[in-house]
Amino acid sequence: MAPEQWVERVVKAADGTDPADVPAGAGGADAPSPDQVARGLRATSQGADLIQILSPEGELTQHPDFPVEVTAEMLQGLYRDMVLVRRFDREGNSLQRQGQLSIWVPLLGQEAAQIGAGRAMRAQDFAFPSYREHGVAWCRGVDPTELLGIFRGTDHSGWNPKEKGFHDYTIVIGNQALNAAGYAMGQVFDGKTGDAETGEATICFFGDGATAQGDIHEGMVFATAFDSPVVFYCQNNQWAISEPVEKMARLPLYRRAEGYGMPGFRVDGNDVLACLAVTRWALDECRTGNGPVMIEAFTYRMDAHTTSDDPTRYRLADETEHWKLLDPIERVRVHLVREGLADQAFFDSVQTEADELAHRFRSFAVAMEVPHVDRIFSNVYSAPHAAVAAQQEEFAEYLSGFSEGSAGAHAGGGH
Question: Is 143 among the domain residues?
Answer without folding.
Answer: yes
